[in-house]
Each structure stands twice: as C-alpha cells, then as structure tokens.
Amino acid sequence: MPKKKKKILLVEDEIEMAEMYRDKFMEYGFDMILAFTSEEALEKLKRIKPDLIVLDILLPTENGISFLAKIKKKKGLKKIPVVALSNYDEPQTKKEAFQLGIKDYLIKTDFTPKKLVKEIEKYLKN
Question: Are 124 and 80 in contact (CB under 8 A)?
C-alpha cells in the first residue's frame, strides 16, 4: 500500500517565497497547503488537519506568535507540530514561540529550499 503523503500547511505572506517552498516540498512528495495570513490559516484549519505547520512569524494583521497562541487553545489543533520559519531573529520572540510549543525556530536565510525540506522531514518521521 503506498505511503500517505504528508500534508504541510505553510503560512507565509510573501507569495513568491510561499510558491517557491510549495514547489520544492511537492517535488519531494509532500501535499502542500498555502495560507498568506494567520486568519486564512485558521480558516483552512477548520477543513484540513495537516501533519505539520510551517509558520512565518512576521505576518500581516496578526503575527505568528498570536496565531500559535490561538491554535494551542483549540483541542483539535494543539497537537499539530509547528516549525517557525522566519527572518525575524529576535530572542524574546523565539522564547515566546518555544513557550507556545514550537518544534524549532528556523531562520530563512540559513536554508535553501532543498535544505529546508530536509530539515522539516525530521518532524514528520512518524
């Protein structure tokens, strides 16, 4: 029986970047869902349950920390692993993100799309 594709929700407000990551993850066999705002991500989470959320921290209207706080309060969502992916490298924000249960806080400039796929795969090994 073929392995079920792992589903990733990518919350990223920069459309070109989101599409670049989506294309690379799909190339490696992942099912990708894109959301460009935290509000859009919350709407999509009502219909789909991804295996992992990759979350930008700097988003329009509501930031990733606020989004994390919301999903961690929702019974059906709080167990979904979240990896932050941001260029915002601020210690207090990182601390808050880890307190809200993220698995990792990755800095975009440290990862090519291919390296990012390999890094994210670690959190989908079940």
Answer: no
Which percentage of the chain shows pLDDT scores above 70? 97
**pLDDT interval class at 36 (50, 70, 90):** very high
Strands 52-55 and 7-11: what pairing?
parallel
Count Cβ atoms below 10 Å from residue 68 Cβ, excluding itself. Answer: 23
pLDDT digits (tens, 9 = 90+) for 37-52: 999 999 999 999 999 9
Tracing tokens 């207090």 back to the chain, one arrives at 92
- Tokens describing residue 88: 């915002």
d(CA 57, CA 51): 19
Q: Is the pLDDT of residue 2 over 60?
A: no
One-letter amino acid at 42 equals L
Q: Which domains can be identified in the chain, with CATH numbers? A: 14-120 (3.40.50.2300)
Q: Which residues of 37-63 are buried (b: 16+ CB within 10 A; e: fewer)?
A: bbeebbeebeeeebbbbbbbbebeeeb
